[in-house]
Write a structure and sequence with these properties.
Number of strands: 15
Oligomer: single chain
Largest sheet: 7 strands, mixed
Shape: globular
Order of helices and strands: HEEEHHHEHEHHEHEHEEEHHHEEHEEEH
Distance between the termini: 42 Å
Helix content: 25-40%
CATH class of the largest domain: Alpha Beta
Length: about 400
Amino acid sequence: MQVTRETFDQVMVPNYSPAKMVPVRGLGSRVWDQAGNEFIDFAGGIAVNALGHCHPELVAALTEQGQKLWHLSNVFTNEPALRLAKKLTDHTFAERVYFANSGAEANEAALKLARRYALEKFGEQKQKIIAFTQGFHGRTFFTVTVGGQPAYSDGFGPKPGAVEHCDYNDLAAFESLISDDTCAVMMEPLQGEGGIISPDPAFVKGVRELCNKHNALLIFDEVQSGVGRTGHLYAYMGLEVVPDILTTAKSLGGGFPIGAMLTTTEIAQHLKPGTHGSTYGGNPLACAVAERTFDIVNDPAVLAGVKQKEQLFRDTLATINNKHHVFSEIRGKGMLLGCALNEDFSGQSRLFLDASTQQQLMCLVAGANVVRFAPSLVIPDEDIAEGLTRFERAVASVVAAR
């Protein structure tokens, strides 16, 4: 059957507006469309393809497991899930793992666990959840309500209650909001969709201290920032703050759908049998691929390489900006970077994305004012150089069209 981009408009629900070209093949940081055009991938499937496309070791892990077991249900456990959980607990603060299919599902589990923990330990009055404006935690009704972007949560009727928001990096506002009725605080240790906003170290430490004071659980949403993305295995490791619950997905599977919630033994015991579940969560296929991804990423040389590649991006972007004067700053950490547009180009990030696609570069936006890059953690330096050459052509075309 021959399908084209026009087929999308005929058969798909119109909640997405995909590019005109249709990718059909990928290898490393390169992608080819139906017409055979080659693109460099700085989008990484929105920070998912941590090792690029069709990494041979991930293909081997998937192929090997695909000839053994695909699905069992959680009536049984399986070896890949147990091995992955052991590695996650060995290399993080956590002692217990719950597997899901996505970041939204992992966050849903974290929020339900926090509410359950508070109810059973402190009583029904302790149910308030605090999150941050411009946060993003998924598209389930609970997680989209906790995320601080009304554009994503409005228009679907009454929202889950007892959820409040304050500005990121505003410790005074947060302190005025938290109380003994707060059961949990959910935050990204580096805001992604909200504009690639890094936390002030004093802010993060202050949030941790206030959570301790009020017996509130601190949940770090590391769906986008985790698994090597910032040059640390998890971003919290570079902040000197340890959460009570951590969620991870995206890069964890290297492109195969998987999510996980990590926490301590004490907190985990409140999700007793029957209180939460997932049909596909922890399936052998996903866990086998994720285990291999985790092994490759959790290597000092790979993590150091992420920081080196960040500097290459920053140096070249500075050169581009000195010539074209379009960015106010380069934000982010590791292979999660945002080019914040200056006042002359305010609200026009989509123009830069479309121009990049025209130059055969795949990138992202993070709101109307930030162009986002989230490439493979092991993208070759020559692909960075060539991709940024294409990006400069895109920038020049936007500037010239003003």
